[in-house]
## 1
Amino acid sequence: MQKAAWLGTAFTPAVKNEKLTGMSEHTHHLSDRLSAIAPSATLAVTARAAQLRAAGEPVIGFGAGEPDFPTPDYIVRAAQEACADPANHKYTAGAGLAQLREAIAEKTLRDSGYEVDPDSIVVTNGGKQAVFQAFHALLNPGDEAILPTPYWTSYSEIINLTGARTVKVFAGADQDYKVSVDQLEAARTPATKVLLFCSPSNPTGAVYTREEVREIGQWCLEHGVWVITDEIYEHLLYDGAEPAHIVAEVPELADQAIVLNGVAKTYAMTGWRVGWMIGPKPVITLAKNFQSHLCSNVCNVAQQAALAAVSGPLDAVMEMREAFDRRRQRMVEILTPIEGLEVPRPQGAFYVYADCRALLGREVAGQVCQTSQQLASVLLDEAKVAVVPGEAFGPSGYIRLSYALGDDDLVTGCERIADVLNRAS
Ligand code: GLU
C-alpha cells in the first residue's frame, strides 16, 4: 500500500452523484456537469507538498509552475496607491478598465507586432478564466476541439464542460513534443471547430519555430478552424528560440483566433489573478456578457497593478528569465544521466517534461511502478519531492518538473530524484 495514494484523487471526478450524507432524497443528486470534473492536478500536487512541509516533512516542490520571485516593487506600489483611491472601491466596466485594455493593446503591438482594438479585449480573473471563456464562446456539443498532447490539465476539463469532444493529438519526446500539420490534418473531421495552441508549451516547455507556427496558422486558415492561442509564457524563451505569435505570422487568422495571455508568469503575479483574451468582436461580446454574470469586474486593485506591469519595462522578466535559464540547465544536467529517464531540453516556459516509460514495470524503492502516477507517489514518499505525473497532461509515462524554484532546492531535489531512481532494478 503506497503512503501517497492521495494523488489518485487528483484524477478522479469529485462526487459521481453518489448519495451524500446528510442530504435528503430530493437534494442529493448534484450537477452532472460539475460532478464530472477532476480537481486540478497541478494545484493538488502543490497543495499536498505544502501540507507535508507544514507537517515538518522536508518536501521540495516541482509542482505548480509559479515563479518564486516576489512581484516587482513598482507594481506592488501601484496596487498600494490604487487601494487608497475610492474610484477603485466601486464596480467598474465588466470588460476591464479602459486604461488597462489600452495598455494591453499597446503591449500586444510592442511584443507581438500587430494592432488590436482595445474593444476586442476582455480582462479576466487570471488566464484560466480567459481559457474558460474562449472555449465556451466557441464550442457546442457535437463540435470537436483538437488538443495537442501532452496538454495543460485545465484545457481538457474546460473543453469537457462545453459538451464538445476533445480530439487528442499526441506528440512525444521523439518529435520534441510538437505536433505536425500532417497529424492535425489526420485528426480533422467536418466537426473540427478549434485548435488549442500553446507555445512555449505548458507542460512540455516545447517551442514551435516561426515556420512551424506559420504552417499551423495557415492550416487553420485554410480549413476554417479557429485557434485559441495561449501565449502566457511568451517571454520565457531560451537557447536562442525565437518568439512567434500565430496571428502575427498569419494576419488573416485574426478573425478566427482568440489570443490568451496574462501577467502571472511574466511579472511573478500568479496570485493577483489578471489575464485577458483578445478576439473578434462577436466572441468578445459573448465573453463580456458571460463575465457580467460571473464576476462583474476583475478586482480593480489587481487591474491597476497589471496596468503598471504591462505598461512598464520588461527588465524584471529578463532577470527572472536568466535565473530560469540557469536552473533549466542545471536540472537537465542532473536528470539526464539517470538511466530510464529521457530528458528533452526544453526551450521555453519553466518546465522539464521527462519521459519515464523505461522505468515503468521496474522496482523503485521496493515498489513496482506501473504508471507515472505511482512513480510520482514513490518520489514523494522516498525522495520527498513533488512532481506532477503525466496522467495530468495526457498519457502515463511522463513526469513534469517546474524549475521556477530556488537554485539550492532545485539541486537538492534533483539529486534526491537521481538517488532514488538510480537504484531502480
Ligand atoms: N499553470 C501553472 C501550472 O501548470 C499553475 C497551476 C495551474 O493553474 O495549473 O502549474
Note: Residues 100 and 352 are 33 Å apart (CA to CA).
## 2
Amino acid sequence: MNIHGFLTQKISQAMLLSGLSENCRPQISQSEKERFGHYQVNGMMALGKDLGISPKTLAKKVLEKLDLHDIAHKVEIISPGFLNIFLEPRWLAIQIDNVLSQDTLGITPIKKQTIVVDYSSPNVAKEMHVGHLRSTIIGDAMARILEFLGHHVIRANHIGDWGTHFGMLIAFLEKQKIKNYAKITLNDLEILYREAKHAYDQDVKFAECARRYVVKLQNGDEYCQTVWKQLVNITMTQNQMLYDRMNVTLTPKNIMGESLYQNMMPDIISDLKSKKLAVHSQDAVVVFLKEKHSRSGELTGVIIQKKDGAYLYTTTDIACIKYRCETLHADRVLYYIDSRQNQHLTQAWEIARQAGYIPDSVQLEHHMFGMMLDKNGKPFKTRTGDIIKLSCLLDEAIDRATRLVLDKNQNIPKKELKAIAEIIGIGSIKYADLSKNRTTNYIFDWNHMLSLKGNTSPYIQYAYTRVLSIFRKANIDLEKRLSGSTYLLNNPSIELALSLLRFDETIKKVAHDGMPHILCAYLYNLASKFSQFYETCQILEEKDKKIKQSYLKLAQLTAKTLKQGLSLLGIHTVERM
Ligand code: ARG
C-alpha cells in the first residue's frame, strides 16, 4: 500500500477533470502537523502562479472534482491554497487488514533495474579505519534496500589493489627475505609498507629495484603476480572477518578492484586520442574539460596517462564506469565515497560520457558523506593522533552494550549476554551512522548511540521486544495469521496504523534518494507511535474480544515492520533485552 501514490493518482485525476493539463503535478507530502490532516497537497501555489489564477480558486476547482468518498472524512482548503486531507479511520483499517493478508508488508511492485552499488572499497596493505565505516555501512544498507524492492543489485567493492606502491612492497619483502606470507597479518603489512616507503625515499638503488618490479608486475611476471595476490589476499581475508562481524553482506565475490580494469586502459587511451578528446601535453596524455561554472570557458586538464606510461586513479574510474555500463548493463550506479572525491568522480564520468561509454539513460550518482568527528568536532582519532581502527571500535561498542544489558538484568546467562551485547553494540554503531543525514559530518557519541531513549537502535530493538513479550504472554506465535478485522477507535491506534501504512512510501524514497536516515527516522517514529498506543490501549487486559484481536493485529504488524526495517539497515533484533 502506498497512500502517497494512491492520493497522487486521485488528485491528478481531479486536476485533469477540472481542466488542468496532465503535466501538472499535485505535489503531495505527509502533513507535518496534526491540524493539517494526514497528507497535504502543495502544488496549487506553483500552478496558480504559472497560470495566473489564485491558488485558492484552483484548489476549489480541484476539490469539486475530487472523489475521496470513504477514503477521507474531510478535505479542507487553507490559505494560500493548500488542500489538507484527513483520512478516514475505517479506510485505514481496511488497508491494515490488506497488508496483513499479504507477506510483503505492503510493498508495491517496482520496475526492475540493474543497480551497481560501489561501497566499502578499502585499500590493500592498509587496515580499514573509521573513514571506511560510513561507506561500508551506508552502502550495505542501500544494497539491501534496493534488493528488497526487487532490483538486481551488483555489489562492487572497488578495492585499491593496483598502483606503483606494489612494486615497492614486493621489492621490500624480498629485501627483508620474507617468504612465509601465511604468518603476515594486515597490521604487519601496514608496518612493512611504512618501512618500504622509507627505504624507497632514502635508498636510490632500492627505488630503482621497486620501479623495475612495477613494470614486471604490470607485464604479468609470474613471481610478482603471486606476491601481489598474496598481499591482496591477506588484506581481504582480514576485511572479510570485519564484514562478517558487522553483518555486512559483502563477500569475496563482490571484489571488483582497480586491477580488474587495467587491461582495458591501452584501448581507452587510444580511443580517447582518436576521438580527439585526449591529447599529448608536456609528455603526458591529458583530457581538457570545460570548467562547469566558468563563463569564459576555462579548461581543466585531467591527466589520464603519466610520462612514464602509468595510468591514474581517474583512468581506472573511466574504465570502471565503461565496464559497468557495457558489461554489467547497469541502469543506475551509486557510489558511496566521501565528499572529497567528488571532483575526481565527476571528471571521470564526464570523460566517459563524452567518449560515449555511458548511455544517456544510465544514472550515475555520487552519494557523498561527511566525516565522523569526536565530541570536540575534530576528526575522530585516538589519543596519540592515530586513526581509530574499526575492530577496536567494535570491541568497545560490545563492551559498552554488555554493561547496558547487565545494568538491566544481572541474572542473564553468560552465553545469551554475549549474543545480545554483540547485536546491540554493533547495531548501535551502525544505526548512529545510518540515522544521520549522510551529507554532513557527524559527532560520534557513545552515550547517545547506546541510549534507550531517542532515535537509537536500542530504542527500536526494545520496542520490538515489547511486542514479542505481549505475544509470549498471550501464547500466540508472531508469525500466525490473525483472524478478525482491525478497528481504529482511538487516536493512538489511528496514528500507529498511519505510520505502519507509510512503510512502502518510506522505502521507495530511501531507494530514490539513497538516504537511509529517512528509514531510521521512520522506524523511530513507528516505535514512538507504538509506545503511545501501548500505553493507551491495554492490549492483554482488553475485555472486548474483537478489539483485543484488532490491537494484536496492529502490534503484530508493528513488530514485523520494525524487524524488517532494522534488517534492511543490517541490524538484528533480539528476543528480549
Ligand atoms: N579505494 C578508495 C579509497 O579508499 C575508494 C574507491 C571508491 N570507488 C571508486 N570507484 N573510486 O579512497
Note: The pocket of arginine is lined by residues 118, 121, 123, 158, 160, 317, 320, 335, 337 (CB under 6 Å).
